[in-house]
Amino acid sequence: MKGKKRSLILLAVALVLILMGSILAGVFNGGKGAVSVTRISFDGGHGTLSGLLYMPKGASEENPRPAIVVTHGYLNSAEMQDANAIELSRRGFVVLALDQYDHGHSDLDDAVYTGEDFFGMWLPFWMWSQHDAVAYMYEQPYVLKDEAGNGIIGVTGHSMGGFSSTVALWMDEQEFAATGVRKIYAGLTEGADFSYSAFVGADVASADAAGGGRIMGKVAAQYDEFFFNAPDDPSGTVRKKNYVATPEALLWLQQESAEPNTWYDTSDGGKRIIFQPAETHPWNHFSATTTGYAVYFYMTAFQDYAKDLNPIDPASQIWQFKEAFECVALVGFVLLILAVASLLIEIPGLNKAKTGELEPAPSVTGASGKFGSVALLLCLILLPAIFFSPLMDGGPSDEMVKGLFYISCALGFSGLLGLLFSLKAEENKKGLLIGSICVMIAGSALAIVTHTPMYADGAYWSALGVNSIAYWTIGCALISLLAMSVVYVGSKVKTGATFKSYGVTFKPLAILMSLVVAILTWAIAYGVLFLMDLLFKADFRIWTFAFKTFDFNICTVILRYLPTFLLFYIVSTAAITVNTNTEKLKGFWGYLLAIALNAGGAILWLLNQYGTLFSTGVAAHPGSALSGIVLVAMVPTLSIAAIISRNLYKKTGNIWLPAFLNALLMTTMTIANTMVAFK
Fold first, then answer.
1. Which of 41, 158, 432, 667 could form a disulfide with 422 if both were Cys (CB 3.0 to 4.6 A apart)?
2. How many CA atoms lie within 13 A of 550 on its CB side?
3. What is the value of pTM for the model shown?
4. pLDDT digits (tens, 9 = 90+) for 105-117
């Protein structure tokens, strides 16, 4: 009864945090009452496009305003442009924060794909997104046109959205040659040069020639992980850059030499500028500096149409409050999950998910025992970091992955030998038998994974940005399982450890009820999320990490990836259970160790990567661009999962509920935040 009361109090606190955070996030998202925000959806010509429309008060058919379409990069959605959308709309611009095709709530028609390989699925979504969104906005009566019918519209995109914006400008000039009308008046790209837009013809020379007298700019961060490299840069793009000095930038600026943050006139009558903040690629869309550049750029570009604009200083920004209150709601969301799951397992029938409280294992005594325990924990923490770049960036062809293959084979074979030995053992026969089987299975499975290209079928594994994550995830799961199995055979079997010590029970009813509780908790939690989005256009996020709404047509894709992440969370929850269920690790310290076991390796890798980048100008792994960015969001993902695992195994006495729940939550969150083709 006491536990139920605590859960009800936790539920109340969670709901207060969610409601307060969502309401206040909505207030700042709407410019403190100056802007109306609605989610819209329309036929873009190549599929369905969706986005958040920010309408300043006073904008109407009778009083049309300059409009700006802002959009995100490869693995994000419209909400990643919150800063630009909020700050531009509160200054009087109509803003459409766009979900690019196959992201968020937008969907590309299958007929538009040019193939089932990576490029056939990857290229069409960004090639058409901004162009089609501009065509829609141009037709809206609340969007301003000049006397000649030209659109007073700006385009801004980050990363892949920047390439989409570059292509939209290029296509707009081609259409102008036929129609005599330009729909786009100005364009600012963030985190994008011409390397990918060149795939469809918009290289730097073509983009320069297609300027059409427009006002254009670029945000080229000095520490951008991908772009703005000089021709003579060594291999590996995660290094400091000075884009304004490169031949590409000088050609685009039409200058022999140039300085950042400086306007230059072009031969066609336009103006161009390059901003160079000391930021990384994902830092752009969480930066007061870059947001200030965007405000300054558009207030300058549209100064001839300033009668209905609000001349608020670029440094005066409120988007940070929206992000802060959504983070408050995120904390409430995690507490809600814990409270709902804890209450559900008290309901008759569903309470069969509980198998009895786990007795804490005695703390290790003696210097050698303590040293061994610390060494083991460090090994479990470091292994995912050591093999992060090889698995994420290299795959089976990487030399370290090849080495891991041979180690796996050797350990798998040793498991077979251990199995034969256990048949003749006189002590701990059952434990040695089970442990040897686990070593043999884990070693064999890891050998297969490290030797076989996985997630290569794009038509089936159609969340392309998730595939390398999935490969690393399944690799980490099997590495951890193999390490735990070896340790079990080598030492824990002598202490009488059993499956129960790891929180593993094979009671069918307990497993089934754990699954039911996990599904119900997932449904209730996401139901609250959808309600907050409906009422306040708020989701639960911090920077690149977000629980957000999704269209249900991606559910089949979620189910495809679910087994991969389920394996990981089964193993990680077992590791957390056996390593934190001790007499000395109660309360805070147990949670801290659980987080270290899950996310410690990721944190150490990032500290090494970016500490080296900022101190020397070259990252520790200069070839790990996208993978390093992805890992930033993995830290809160794995940390939250660790909290859920520890909290719920303590209440159920087994790993199944937290493993099922983490797999459902994190797979859904991952797929909802990325590109999904062939749904």
1. 432
2. 27
3. 0.95
4. 999 999 999 888 8
